[in-house]
Amino acid sequence: MIEELVRIENGSFKNDGSFYLFDMSVSRGECVGVYTNDHRTSGTAYMGIFGGQTDLVGGKAFCCGVRSGYPETRRWIRANTMIIDRRRFASRELTATDYLLAIGAGRGALDKKDDVLLSREALDMKEKMGITFPWSAHLTALSMLDYYRLAAYKAWLLQCRIIVLDRITEILRRQDLHAFMDCVLVLQGQGAGVFLLDMDENFIFRYANRIDVLKNRRTCYHLYPEEYGERLYDILGWEKKDSSWGSAADSGGQREAGAPNAVLVLEKLRFDGLSPMTFSIGSGEIGFLQDENYRTASCIRSCVLGDLDWTEGSLQLDQKTLTPRELRAEVGHGVAVQIEMPDRSGGVLFDNLTALENLSIVLIPKAGKHFVHKNLTESILDRAAEWFDRDRLLSPIRKWSLPERLQLSYLKWYLLNPKLLICLFPFSGQESIHHEMIINMLVRCARRGMAVWIISSGIDEICEKTANEEFLKRLRYLA
Question: What range does the domain containing 338 cover?
Fold first, then answer.
């Protein structure tokens, strides 16, 4: 009989003032995929169960097959769980030994001596997980793969019974992802239970023994391998991705990308802690820059939307060399910035305004003083009505679904038509069923002549799955 680690039946949970109904269970050596149609609500609350931010207030709870009270269940989960997610220790002083023995000490009977890492058992596990760097290596010197291998090793060292991976596919490159999962499978083979909270269904299909589907803040389905695939789309009410969304009929303002003129040119541009960047992106091109840990995206975002300056090198926009201050002055006119979630803090949409108001904010100033405001607003409404229902455009976007808000945010840039569109992790946190919509929007913007700069982690799998050949033709990997 398989030993059960934790089981919660008809669980009622409270997180940030909202209630959730989750059934959850995992046994020794089992891998459970958790797939949600809204990671910001259900996914965040589910993660809060393991981190202690979500409280169990109803239902039956069992730990290792024994009925347990709510406070005891919470303590057991926290004491026996390790969460591996986007957060990474960035201190320049910490070594791998510090991370393994000092950080998180006190969870379990771990002897905090260096020689615990030199035992035969520890060295054997180090080899199994493919860890070749010395324990004296500094954390900042580790590659993304090595860092997450180290996290898996720490889970073994702390004898964690449950491993939680939160959207790990958005952090690691595809080839690194499988190498990391080999470490997780070692832990699973030794009896650890694994939860995969992820929006990449193919990743979950590959590794999960069961998929729990969260919808509308509750666990709706438990799917088993024979039900994977089309069944997942059916129960979430999604349609299969259709590359016909966003037809090739756009021609207004179009500048084709056959022999692109350089719009953005970076020459040895450097920020503190980053390698110099030298590349160019032409009119109608989609340039992709690999960023495994969000450091580059963070610097670019702070530079364009904040007050961070580069330390060396030069930047040209449309053949004009700009200072950091001059670049920031171009935002909203010659430069647009698209972030992961368009209507959160620092995003590009105001959720209390209507869609028409959001579009008018950037388009009316561009028109100048010689247009009648009412007529211009009506013109914007007519143009946007080619994409959305007119009544929908007059409603606050807080009532819109995430895919609709994403589409509107790109429509905003499409109509503004800046010289440069910077997209920071555009696929991060989005269900893969929406990737094709984002790709089509990027192509539409490129057709208008924009230089599109994508800064993100791995994009290979997205390229393999897309049916949009024009995206692949316009896409160029930046050195």
Answer: 262-352+396-477
Which bin fits 199, alpha (ψ -120 to 50), beta or left (φ > 0)?
Answer: alpha
Classify residue 132 as exposed, middle or buried by CB count within 10 Å of its CB (0-12, 13-18, 19+).
Answer: exposed
Specify whether the backbone of 64 is left (phi greater than 0), alpha (psi in -120 to 50) or beta: left
89 and 133 co-located in one domain: yes
The tens digit of pLDDT for each residue in 167-183 reads 898 888 777 888 999 99
The pLDDT value recorded for residue 462 is 85
Does 20 have pLDDT greater than 80?
A: yes
Name the burial class of residue 209, with classes exposed (0-12), middle (13-18) and buried (19+) by CB atoms within 10 angstroms of its CB: middle
| Alpha-carbon span 476 to 286, nearest angstrom | 6
Token pair for 184 = 């997780």
Whole-number pLDDT of residue 249: 33
- Quick one: 169 and 273 in the same domain? no
Mention every residue, 6+ apart, whose C-beta is less than 8 A from residue 113: 101
Give me the number of domains the chain comprises: 2
* DSSP state letter for 43: I
CATH code (residue 473):
3.40.50.300
Question: Looking at residue 430, what is its pLDDT?
Answer: 75
DSSP-derived secondary structure letter, 241: P
- From the list 28, 68, 75, the residue with the least C-alpha distance to 51 is 75
Task: Based on the fold, state whether residues 190 and 267 are members of the same structural domain.
Answer: no
Distance CA 216, CA 20 (A): 9
Provide CB contacts within 8 A for 100, sequence distance 6+. 117, 135, 150, 153, 154, 157
pLDDT digits (tens, 9 = 90+) for 400-455: 888 888 889 899 888 888 999 999 988 877 777 788 889 999 999 999 889 999 99
Model confidence pLDDT, tens digit, residues 362-387: 787 765 543 445 567 888 888 888 88
Q: Is the entire prediction scored with pTM above 0.85?
A: no
DSSP H helical ranges for 111-200? 120-128, 144-157, 174-189
Please report, for residues 1, 100, 259, 276, 394, the alpha-carbon distance to residue 107 in angstroms, rounded to integers and kept in the order given. 28, 12, 60, 41, 54
Helices (H), 190-226: 201-207
Q: Is there a single domain that holds both residue 190 and residue 296?
A: no
26 backbone φψ class: left, alpha, beta (φ>0; ψ -120 to 50)? beta
Q: How many helices (H) and strands (E) does the chain have?
A: 17, 19
Distance between CA 388 and CA 395 in Å, rounded?
A: 11
Residues 178 and 322 occupy one common structural domain: no
Q: Which two tokens stand for residue 252?
A: 């207004």
pLDDT at 238: 52
Q: Which residues pair with 84 in a beta bridge?
A: 165
Range with lowest mean pLDDT among 230-234, 315-319, 346-350: 230-234
